[in-house]
Every structure is written in structure tokens, then in C-alpha cells.
Amino acid sequence: MNQRILKANGKEEVIQFLEELKQSSFFPTLAFIFVIDKSLSFDLVAPFYEEAVEVFATCSAEVIYNDSKSEFALVALVLAIPRSYFSLVHYPADSDSFSLGKQIAKDAKNQFLKPALLMLVAFKDLSFEPEKMIEGILDFDSGLKIFGGIASSFGNVENPPFYTKYGLETHGVCVLTFDEEKIQIHGLAVSGWQELGTPKKVTKSIGRKVYEIEGEPATDFYAKYFGFNTENLGIRKNHIDPDLLAASEFPLLIRKEDGSEVLRVAIQMDSKEKSVSYGGDIPEGSLVRFCSPNTMETIQHSYQEMFSFRSDLQELYPDFILMFNCAVRSRSLGPYMNMELNAIHKLWNRNVIGFSSWGEIGNSLHSKCGLHNTVISIVAIRNVEDSNRKNNELIEEDPRTIQFEPTTEVLTMEEMKREIDQLRRDKRILGHFLRLTSDDLEQEEVKSSKLLLNILPKETASRLRSGEVNISERVPSASVLFADLVGFTSFASKIDPEKLVTILNQIFTSFDDLTLKYGVEKIKTIGDAYMVASGVPNHLFDHADRCIQLGKEMISFMKEFSKKENLPLKIRIGINSGEVTAGVIGKHKFTYDLWGDTVNVAQRMEANGFPNCDLLPKNCTDI
């Protein structure tokens, strides 16, 4: 594909570049342009419009060129391709976002038989919902390819815009549509963030605005975890407010109904209504978890997925790579971001141009197209008709052998001061977050321990928690008790299910209290049957006596309970003593159980016994 690269810091350089193109008989038709936020101006890009070049351009928190973040005010990749291969349209966000998406898809399908879309999005308030726009596009045609990014700034521009020939647009979408019969695009979005802490429930939300998490106002929840003030601060935006930007490095992970996962970054806080707004929808009732990157693992993960993606393209080698890299990702990875960019550039060995965005549109390996945060999204673009492309320049190095090292950047005194301020803020927020996350994990550990003790003996639970896998033992002398409710089956057929469960719970809860009283182990319940063991896993010299006394109290309880509640229920009990085998079975749902003739005989004793009587063999009475 016929292309040229421009790196410039002023309008005169742009004019000179375009003049040199004409002198070399290169007549551009389309330009991808990314302008750093601190140098944002229409004049910088105006010469392209004056030469009738179609412009796909945006304000950028950071500009990316090849193997690093560029220091130039503007970077452009200019193409000379037939105008019939593409169309470029700007849409104002003055209708609902879903309808806007359907209109975009309709226009694309009217333009080309097989269209593919690249987008630049800008919004000055939350009335424009990019995720709903994507849903509208896919509702019209679920097979459309869509990639893009949201205009960005690190605090220099309050409402980052994209460019149009009429000026800067802060609320709408720029759509570049390619005819895929001429220009093919393939893309992939990769994150690599890892889950932290414990799941939290979103208890009140509408769309992408969350009002409560775990029953607590969302702003208070964030203040608790990240340690910053939320009182009387009005509306805070993450690209303006440094504290919220730092907290954005810990996005929420949501698992959607289709099983796919997406990360959501906090983009705005409203102290008055105590809400937190995110880059995309968070359904009420969702279970979410904070996430964070492990720098080296995150980079290795993204490189491996891109290596696989490139391999899957086989002979469909691109002419250049368009990149939408999350600004929060870049901030979080710090000096390692250029290391990741360098590895990706080497992997493709093509021109790479792009910017750090506030949201990325694309698909991952395991999910369909959607709006993402924290991802690095690449789009491989190729001219189908170009037969002169060199395909043998791509490296074939195994991604597992790549050695990643951070690049060394020389900072000015002012840049170093900003870096130190940022590190101090990050340290404070991270420290606060990790302390609370650690507390969460400790609380979950206590809950898990209590739950484990509800289904396993204390000693057995300790062995399981220490990592022991095959837990079993032969106990030479123990006692087993089986109890069964007589008349329960016929009674159950005549009573409301909810009331039935309530009655059964009352009975078994009382039995549980009795097992604690006598220091025996409840093994399990099966329907209306209740099984207990004494002398396992720890030996008890009076195990038989404990079971006998327990059985007597169970009978007494059932007599009183049935009389009080006017129930036609009695209890039948069988007890036996002898050798048993005890152990834990299962992997995800553990069960502590007993096996052997002693167990079988106790069960038969119960089955053949009389209501409201203990039935036990001679060996049990001898003990």
C-alpha cells in the first residue's frame, strides 16, 4: 500500500511535507492523524483539508509511532488509495446512541457490499453512550467489523475532540468505512489485567452509572478503597482529576451473560448524587471485582496473544498497523509501555501508528466486538490488490523466549517533578487499596473456614486447607447413628413446600445443636434422614455412650416438637459400633463420609427399628 509518514511539531512542517509529496507525484487521499493534547489546534491539521485529503484525526493523550510514544505534536500516516475504496462521515450525537449505531451500519451497508468500520468517538457528557452505539450497529448487522478509540487527554483538554473539516467535534463519532473487497482489516484487543480481592455486588445501577456497591453509595465505596475525599467536589472526571485517574488503574471486571469478560474504568464521579460512571454499562446485580496489572505478566500475555493472532492471519500480511492503546494502561505500565510497543512493532515489522485512548472498540480472542478499557487494540490493514508486499520480513521468534526490558527515558526536571508527584499519589492510593483488599480477603478466609467447618470435622478441614489431597483413615472403633423421620413422606405430600422446608429446618437445626452438645460429628442429611458419627476423626473412649445419649434426646425432642406443632411425625434410630473408614471425597464440593460394615449395619438397624425407640446391637451395648 502506497504510504508516507509525517512527524511534525508545527503547521509549516505539515505544509512542507504535503508540498514534497506533490513534487514526488504522491497524491494522498486519506490521512490517519494523531495530535498530542497539549498541541491541539485545528491549524495543525488544516493543510490536509486544504489539499482535499480525507482526515481521520483525533486529540490524543499520547501519540504512538512504531516502537514508542512519540514526542512530536503530530504523527500522520498518509495513503494514496482510490477514493472509491473508502468513505468518511461525521455523525453528531444528537439522537439516542442505539439509533445512531443503526444509522451508521445502514449507511455503511448502502455504501459497500462488505464494509468494515474504523471509528473515533468524542463525548462531552454521558448522554452519548458508545456501547449502545455499538449494540445498534451489530443489531443491524452482527457480522460488521468495528474498531476504534475514544478521543483522550491527560488533563490538558476538558472535552477531547476529533477533527472534521469544519473544526473540532467534542460530541459525536467519525466513521471511516473501508470496502473490504479492496481494503481488509483484522483486529484484536488484549488486556492482561488480573483479578484482585473479593467479588462485590452492584446493588443499584442504571446503564453505566452505578449508585450503590454492596449497599453503599458508590462514591463512598471508592473513597473507602482509594482513600480520597468525595465531599462537595461536584463532578470529577478521570482525565482531569488525578486521584480518580489513579483509581482508574483498578477497573472493575464484569462477566457478561454470554460468558465473556469486560473491564470497566471509572470515568466520572458525581458527589451530589453519589454515583460513579464507567466506560460502559454495569448491570444492576452484577458481581464485579477490582483488577490490576502485573506488569511483566501483562506484557507477556499481550505479546503471546498478538503472536497467535498474527499467526492466524497466515498469508494475510498487513501493510500497516493502526493502534488504539488505553491511556489508563499506558499510565499504569509507565516506562514499560514503550517496551510493550517495541515488542509489538518488532512482531509486525510494519509501520505502527495510533494513540492512547479513553476506550477501545474491538474484539478479543474470547468475545465479540465491544467497548473495552485497559486493552491494547491493534488493527492490521492491508490492500487486497497489492502484490508487491514483502511477507518474509515478519519475525518468527517464539514469544516465550522474548526478553522484556524497560526502555530508558531522559526526563526534564519538570517531567521528573510530575513523575514524582504521580508516584507519591499512586503509592498512597495503592497502599490504601491493598490494605482494604487484604481485609476483604481475611474476611472471606474467615467465612470460608466457617463454611468448611460446617461440612468437615475441624481436624479434617485443617488437613485440607494445608494442601493435603487424599484424606482417608481407618478408625478401629467408632459409633454411627442413623435417624429417620417416620411419616414424613406422606406428610410432605399434603403440605406447602415452603412450610415443609421450614419444619425440616427446625428439626435438623435442633439435631445440630444436640450434636454439638455431645461432641459428635454430623456426617450428612439425605432427605429426612440424619447421619451422625462419634469417635471420628478423633478417638473417643465413650463414643457409643455419646451416640446413645444423643439418640435419647433426639427421641425426646421429636415427641415434644410433634405434639407442640400437631405433626404426625415420629423418629426411628439405629446405632452400631465398630471399625469404619473415613475420608473426604469430591473436588469442588467436599463431602466427609464413612464406609464399612459398621455403617451398613447401623443403617439397617434404623430401617428395622420401631418409632421413637433406639435400636442397637450387643456390640454397641458392650462398648
From TrEMBL:
Belongs to the adenylyl cyclase class-4/guanylyl cyclase family. It holds the Pfam family FIST_C. InterPro entries: A/G_cyclase, A/G_cyclase_CS, Cyclic_nucleotide_synthase, FIST_C, FIST_domain_N, Nucleotide_cyclase. It comes from the Bacteria. Coiled coil: none annotated. Residues 479-606 form the Guanylate cyclase domain. The keyword Transmembrane helix applies. Keywords: Lyase, Membrane, Nucleotide-binding, Transmembrane, Transmembrane helix. Its main location: membrane. GO terms for biological process: cyclic nucleotide biosynthetic process; intracellular signal transduction. GO terms for cellular component: membrane. It is found in: Membrane. GO terms for molecular function: adenylate cyclase activity; nucleotide binding. This is Adenylate/guanylate cyclase catalytic domain protein. SUPFAM superfamilies: Nucleotide cyclase.
